[in-house]
Specification:
single chain; 380 residues; Enolase-like, domain 1; TIM Barrel; 14 helices; 11 strands; 41% helix
Length: 380
């Protein structure tokens, strides 16, 4: 594919902060547009994001190199970006700069081939499987209902309290039921960073009890975000109490990103005692990094991984991590970020790569709803 032009501009994300949006146009007129999210709680191994204004300058500096040659594949384009950057943490071009280019190129190539983005992703992720024989499915949704920690304003320290649902309608029903209950209790129903409720004065177990009261057989997913606890001066929750009293199917980042020993002990005990019914999910620990994921698999610290493209910087590396997880029978959870945009690429990524789960936040706020709407546009 020959690139005709590249344009980048600075836009606002869901927190009113600046981020970048890049448009890549191919020589046949096909184009793709991508904007980049950011994290509120971040793993220290994530690639470096540079200031959006600097990011736009970097695109201008390398655009001639990108438009002066042809790229035969997504992998070749991404590899060229990595070579141009020349650092281990993508601090030269910026991981955000590279991701905006990589995703925009991906979308443009899909259009050039007359495909939807998820179909193009399928073809590069599973080249051995014909598109005509592919079976695409709706991932299960870890729909955010209540939030605490760095994302909330109440007394809860756990960052995300999610209901695992099969349909968007069921998730919306739970969300509205909790909203109505909070309203009856005189609690604010203003929403937090990712669109969920954060009742004042409620601790972790009170929120769990509230959420559990509106589940009809659904399970709970928790993002503890333990790496933020020490800085905030919080104690870790009693996981035996939580897992013993509530229908938790998935627990994410229950220990800090450097606490490999406790990750190992937790996984050894829980996966044995709970007969592999519990998903132990890595995020800050693995940061969508293939080298770290390889270590996590070898040390058996979990059985699922959160995948966030902006943690690693290119579509190809993101798909590499997904393939590694799938080949090791780990579950894949495609996730949004704390500060996001209306870009719905990760919905296509989830369906095209065959991810089992998605985390897109609450069914509220435009930047979250855009991704849910894209899921239904693809699957119906």
């Amino acid at each position: 594919m020959k690139i005709n032009s590249i344009k980048t501009r600075v836009i606002l994300n869901s927190a009113g902060a600046k981020t970048i949006e890049t448009k890549v146009t191919l020589s046949d007129g096909s184009f793709g547009v991508a904007s980049v999210p950011g994290g509120i709680s971040k793993g220290k191994s994530e690639v470096t994001s540079i200031e959006p204004i600097e990011s736009a300058k970097r695109v201008g500096e390398i655009s001639e190199k990108l438009t002066s040659r042809e790229f035969d594949s997504q992998k070749e384009f991404d590899s060229f970006l990595i070579e141009l950057d020349g650092t281990s943490d993508k601090s030269n071009l910026g991981g955000n700069t590279m991701l905006s280019l990589s995703v925009a190129f991906c979308k443009a190539c899909a259009k050039a081939e007359g495909l939807e983005t998820y179909q193009y992703i399928h073809n590069i992720h599973n080249p051995e499987k014909l598109l005509s024989e592919a079976k695409f499915f709706m991932p299960r949704m870890m729909m955010l209902i209540l939030e605490g920690g760095l994302h909330g304003s109440g007394g809860a320290t756990i960052q995300e309290f999610m209901a695992i649902v099969e349909t968007i309608d069921r998730g919306v029903e739970i969300y509205k039921s909790v909203k109505n209950e909070l309203h009856k209790l005189g609690q604010s129903t203003n929403v937090g960073a990712e669109g969920a409720f954060s009742p004042d004065g409620y601790d972790n177990e009170q929120i769990l009890s509230l959420l559990n009261g509106y589940l009809h057989g659904e399970k709970i997913a928790l993002d503890i975000a333990a790496s933020s606890f020490s800085e905030a001066g919080w104690e870790l929750p009693d996981y035996d109490v939580i897992l013993g009293n509530y229908p938790v199917e998935s627990i994410e980042d229950q220990y800090g990103e450097d606490d490999w020993a406790n990750w190992e002990l937790f996984a050894r005990e829980k996966l044995s005692n709970m007969k592999n019914k519990l998903m132990i999910v890595t995020d800050d620990l693995t940061t969508t990094n293939p080298a770290i994921l390889e270590k996590a698999i070898a040390r058996e610290v979990g059985n699922a991984i959160v995948v966030k493209p902006n943690q690693i910087g290119t579509v190809s590396e993101t798909l590499q991590v997904i393939k590694m997880a799938q080949n090791s029978t780990w579950k894949v959870v495609i996730s949004h970020r704390g500060t996001d945009t209306n870009d719905d690429f990760i919905a296509d990524l989830a369906i095209g790569s065959g991810a089992e789960f998605v985390k897109f936040g609450a069914p509220a706020r435009g930047e979250r709803v855009a991704k849910y709407n894209r899921l239904t546009e693809i699957i119906g």
